[in-house]
Inverse folding.
């Protein structure tokens, strides 16, 4: 049964648009799936390989701008940005990885945080290429209806899920976790830690970049503050994985589901709307104290805390 | 044939010479003990051979190939594996996954790695703990796990850093048995140990360090009577 869970969930998700959902609900679902894809990519680097990045907005933004610039400068469909971002973000991650992966622990986190900000400011100032703070507007969206966007992001997220899973069951997976647990021990066991950390960063960055390129297509507008947002992208990505479960396959999906829905619910409450970030902060603190491995990682503990003890034993 | 040659190695940390001008050879198939009082530079020596430190002076050769200056993972790939005095298990991984992570060094497929891991775990007597998360293992088993992990990289030379410290007598006997079995497989071993009975009984030859200098080298019975070694351990004999 557990083996088929991914297929069952995928089927359910694939059928949802056929049930005549409102455009608004479909939009929420698209966001949930996009965030799970980003969360899964972050999880590969931050969760499994233990290199906690506070700057995934950099990869997201580079992906998004790849699609945007293709459209604004070359007049191509921004959809070409999805495959092209694989190349662009790979090169970008290699360069960035060369710099930030020399650092460990909190220093790595700070360097990645800075890298996201550096990219935002750079994009703001390269007015000729990126349009600066004006951003890039995709004049004509591919579809008015959201159904196809839904299926495309579902395909991206499903591929990300499968890729992460295949990787984690292979040699690379063992190496990533070994590096997370003890870099010196890993090195002395013959693991080229620099190489494998760079690989983790590249794959994670590319997968995030693809989601970024999709975002440009879907939203039809990007500017540096949206695409390289420190809070709305880098931090939210970490929160999604923390809430859902670090280093679990389903954590990012569960986290994205909770965070996106919660954001929508809180925003629609009169008087509370503007405080939604405060509530996110409180939620994160509660999760860290009571469920340090997230909802998926500490599922049994969560059941006990909610009083299902008798039902489960 | 010499497996490992250490030639005039010195290691300075700032102004402190942790090792000064130490040379020795290890012959293929031997068990060599490395002993000395606390702070003599034994673990530093391992770190030099293993590639964590690059020697300030001197060179290290492994099977006639210069290895000083290489990175630890390259040296491990060439065939030198080590254990740590302060055990470094991959904490949140099971015993099996710990060994798997190192078994992948020589093989490509998962099936081959699984085979090596099972074989190594059985060899070191950890089969009852295969699925235990290594954080919750008692010290004796963690030390065994260190050995298992190093063995899974299929080394030619194994560096054991105090693999017997803190073991109870029955664990000690088991570990000595494991070391003998490793030797029987044709793997050369260099071992740091404070337990004199153990080191005297299993070593083919012994190198003694004191304050970073090599003060003696030879067969166990020679070492036991060497006045310099006795002095290093017990202090100078008082006359009158």
């Amino acid at each position: 049964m557990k083996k088929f869970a991914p297929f069952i969930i995928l089927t359910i998700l694939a059928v949802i648009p056929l049930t005549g959902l409102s455009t608004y609900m479909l939009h929420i679902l698209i966001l949930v799936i996009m965030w799970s894809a980003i969360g899964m990519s972050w999880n590969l680097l931050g969760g499994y390989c233990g290199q906690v990045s506070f700057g995934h907005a950099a990869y997201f933004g580079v992906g998004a701008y790849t699609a945007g610039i293709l459209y604004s400068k070359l007049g191509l469909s921004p959809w070409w940005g999805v495959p092209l971002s694989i190349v662009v973000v790979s090169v970008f991650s290699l360069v960035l990885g060369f710099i930030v992966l020399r650092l460990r622990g909190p220093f790595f986190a700070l360097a990645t945080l800075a890298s996201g900000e550096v990219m935002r400011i750079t994009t703001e100032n390269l007015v000729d290429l990126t349009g600066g703070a004006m951003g890039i507007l995709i004049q004509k969206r591919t579809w008015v209806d959201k159904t196809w966007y839904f299926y495309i992001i579902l395909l991206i997220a499903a591929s990300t899920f499968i890729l992460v899973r295949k990787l984690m069951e292979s040699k690379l997976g063992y190496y990533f976790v070994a590096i997370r647990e003890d870099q010196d021990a890993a090195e002395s066991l013959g693991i080229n830690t620099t190489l494998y950390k760079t690989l983790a960063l590249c794959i994670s960055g590319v997968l995030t970049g693809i989601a970024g390129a999709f975002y440009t297509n879907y939203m039809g507008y990007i500017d540096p503050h949206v695409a390289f947002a420190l809070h709305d992208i880098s931090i939210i990505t970490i929160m999604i994985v923390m809430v859902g479960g670090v280093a679990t396959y389903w954590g990012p999906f569960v986290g994205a589901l909770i965070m996106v829905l919660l954001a929508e619910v809180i925003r629609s409450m009169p008087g509370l709307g503007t405080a939604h970030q405060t509530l996110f902060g409180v939620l994160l603190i509660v999760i860290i104290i009571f469920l340090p491995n997230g909802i998926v990682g500490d599922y049994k503990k969560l059941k006990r805390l909610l009083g299902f003890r008798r039902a489960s034993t | 044939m010499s497996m490992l040659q250490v030639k005039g190695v010195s290691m300075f940390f700032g102004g402190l010479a942790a090792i000064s001008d130490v040379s020795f050879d290890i012959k293929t198939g031997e068990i060599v003990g490395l002993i000395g009082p606390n702070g003599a530079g034994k673990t530093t020596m391992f770190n030099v051979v293993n590639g964590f430190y690059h020697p300030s002076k001197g060179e290290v050769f492994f099977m006639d190939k210069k290895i000083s200056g290489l990175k630890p993972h390259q040296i491990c790939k060439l065939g030198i594996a080590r254990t740590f005095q302060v055990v470094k298990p991959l904490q949140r991984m099971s015993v099996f996954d710990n060994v798997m992570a190192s078994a992948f060094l020589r093989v490509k497929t998962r099936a081959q790695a699984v085979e090596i891991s099972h074989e190594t775990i059985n060899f070191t007597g950890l089969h009852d703990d295969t699925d235990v998360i290594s954080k919750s293992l008692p010290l004796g088993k963690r030390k065994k796990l260190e050995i298992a992990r190093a063995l899974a990289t299929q080394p030619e030379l194994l560096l054991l850093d105090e693999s017997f410290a803190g073991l109870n007598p029955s664990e000690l006997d088991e570990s000595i048995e494991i070391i003998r079995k490793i030797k029987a497989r044709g793997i050369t071993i260099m071992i740091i140990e404070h337990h004199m009975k153990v080191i005297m009984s299993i070593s083919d030859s012994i190198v003694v360090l004191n304050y970073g200098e090599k003060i003696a080298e030879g067969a166990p019975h020679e070492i036991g009577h060497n006045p310099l070694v006795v002095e290093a351990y017990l202090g100078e004999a008082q006359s009158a």
